[in-house]
Amino acid sequence: MTLTKAIRFYGTGTPDVMRYEDVEVGAPGLGEVRLRHVAVGLNYADTYFRNGTYKIPMPNGMGVEASGVVEALGEGVIDFVVGDRVTYTGFLNTLGAYSTQRLIPANALIKLPEEISCETAAAMTMRGLTAAYLMRRIYDFKKGDTILLHAAAGGVGLIVSQWAKLLGLTVIGTTSSEEKAAVAKAHGCDHVINYSHENVAERVRELTNGVGVNVVFDSVGKDTFMGSLDSLKRRGLLVCVGTASGPIPAFDPVLLAMKGSLFITRPALADYIADPAEKRELANELFDHVRHGRIKIEINQRYELKDAVQAHHDLETRKTIGSSIFVI
């Protein structure tokens, strides 16, 4: 047995439900590896597990994304060797990332190119693969299309905006402050709307000569739902990728017809990386952009694992900008 540190929680609620504990890690079983973490990703999705939005058995571990070094192989593992640098993200199959070491199914892992550090990987695997499927799978973008990107200065937002510019799209971002607006513009947003004092839908109509945008990427949820619909052009697509302000209230689908025969989807990353071949394809495209500098990954907040409670407070009160990680 190996003694490791991990964040565990025994019931849902505020950040204070998380506990920093000693945990024993045994030998890897069939199809597993023992992984020594170097860095762990901090994602808004983590708060959904913690507060009960995503239902999971209790007690449980926290976090679904990390990177590190393979320390031991279980029976049947042939795609990795001890010493490989890897990264991962997922859903239930990768819960427990907030730890110094862990066991994990080998089929969840992605080998890292030499040019990408473990810290960069922890800051970009979940966010980057999310951006990859949003840009490459959700909609058949054409050069000149326009998108509205909520939380444009967030970890996913900064990658999406850079990727969108590579595709020749016009990007309208929303932020809550002038500081975040400056960050969003520096990463590719053509226009930034400060939603704390501007009406988003009205500004979108002004910026698009009354037409609206092709696609809205909305990670905020309840507070922005109607404004997002009102920002779309006829037959536009609303992509609901998160509910930071709370779940979207129930609505009559006839509303979509009344607002221009709109489309709406609520995708999950897990369904876009479930197929190993598709996961490799998306990861390779992401890695290629990052290694050649076309997409830059900036880590703006670093925490120690024992400070997970503070990290979640910072995340939920919108004190963070871009990507955040735990350094092990």
Describe this protein with a few key phrases.
328 residues; Rossmann fold; 29% helix; Quinone Oxidoreductase, Chain A, domain 1; 10 helices; 7-stranded mixed sheet; 6-stranded parallel sheet; alpha/beta; 16 strands; 2 domains
Architecture overview:
The protein is α/β, with parallel strands linked by helices. It folds into two domains: 2-127 and 270-327, Alpha-Beta Complex (Quinone Oxidoreductase, Chain A, domain 1), CATH 3.90.180; 139-266, Rossmann fold, CATH 3.40.50.720. Helices cover 29% and strands 28% of the residues. It contains ten helices and 16 strands. The protein has helices at 44-51, 118-136, 155-166, 178-186, 200-207, 225-229, 254-258, 269-272, 276-291, 308-316; strands at 2-9, 18-25, 32-42, 60-61, 65-73, 85-89, 101-105, 109-111, 146-149, 170-175, 191-194, 213-218, 232-240, 263-265, 299-303, 323-327. Helix 4 links the parallel strand 10 and strand 11. The longest helix has 19 residues, at 118-136. The model has no long low-confidence stretch (mean pLDDT 96).
